[in-house]
Design brief:
- By secondary structure, the protein is an alpha+beta fold.
- The protein has two domains: 121 residues, no CATH class; 104 residues, Elongation Factor Tu (Ef-tu), domain 3.
- It contains four helices and twelve strands.
- It has a six-stranded antiparallel β-barrel. It has a three-stranded antiparallel β-sheet with strand order 10-11-12, covered by helices on one side.
- Strand 11 and strand 12 form a beta hairpin.
Length: 270
């Protein structure tokens, strides 16, 4: 009778054990590869998000009037300068409702014509509080900022103010700015918000103040709590205004974080 060949029980057990070890190693390798791909995707997403957010804030801040920037309480606030030109006559010694200017560009002139109440005129070189004081909009007082009642003839070189007004000083280079409404960016918990379309406030508003009165949108929803920090240095005769801000983004699938820091120079000078 021919001899039969086969595997012993010990050999079968050894094969099964080896196959289990290979399967375990393969599974761990696949898991690590997938985990690495997910982590890399998270890092790239946070890096891109940080670039987008910081670039949006930077672009808006560069359009701000340098003396209108206020920072504190996890918020930054500024007033954008929609346009600028030079004035020919400015009511300084006596009050007047008319300011003679070199004509604005058509885009600025059209914006004023469409909604003059949205804008204010300002000359350069005063403290931050002047830009958030609305008392000059309705009384003939001395102030660097005044509301616009109608366009007068912004293309032809005249702007009519809401009331008789007297600016308390002249600009060094006869520069005059058209200011829009204030804008704020605030962090609340893990979310960064942008606020607009709210009134002037003598002190910088907090998130609670803005959340009840202003239009807002979400800029980011994955920040580390209290990580949005802003430092503002006003303009001087030696340098432009400088704003430093930073925030920390957290990963959704791990404990990793990404810190974003940016410096912005605001060069709107007289």
């Amino acid at each position: 009778m021919p001899r039969q060949h086969g595997f012993t029980l010990v050999e079968l057990v050894m094969v099964i054990v080896l196959l289990g070890i290979v399967a375990t190693i393969s599974t761990q390798f696949v898991n690590l590869s997938v985990r690495g791909a997910i982590d890399l995707g998270d890092r790239q997403q946070r890096a891109l998000q940080g670039v987008v957010i910081s670039e949006q804030i930077t672009r808006e801040l560069r359009e701000a009037h340098p003396l209108s920037v206020r920072a504190g309480n996890q918020c930054i606030e500024w007033i954008s300068a929609r346009g600028a030109t030079t004035y020919k006559t400015l009511p300084v010694e006596e009050v007047s409702r008319d300011v003679l200017i070199s004509p604005f560009g058509e885009s600025v002139a059209d914006a004023i014509r469409n909604n003059p109440a949205r804008f204010r005129l300002a000359v350069y070189g005063y403290s931050v509080s002047n830009f958030y004081d609305s008392s000059g909009d309705a009384a003939p007082i001395s102030s660097p900022v005044s509301a616009i009642e109608d366009d007068g003839n912004v293309s032809g070189g005249k702007v009519s103010l809401t009331s008789a007004h007297r600016f308390n000083a002249r600009s060094p280079q006869k520069r005059i700015y058209v200011l829009e409404g204030p804008v704020s960016i605030c962090q609340n918990r893990d979310t960064l918000y942008r606020f607009e379309n709210y009134g002037l406030m003598p002190t910088q508003p907090s998130f609670v103040d803005l959340n009840n009165t202003a239009d807002h949108g979400v800029m980011a929803a994955n920040l580390i709590a209290n990580s949005f920090r802003v430092n503002s240095r006003p303009i001087s005769l030696q340098r432009s205004a400088v704003v430093n801000f930073e925030f920390v983004l957290k990963a959704q699938n791990s404990e990793e974080t990404t810190r974003v820091s940016q410096e912005v120079q605001i060069r709107n000078v007289p």
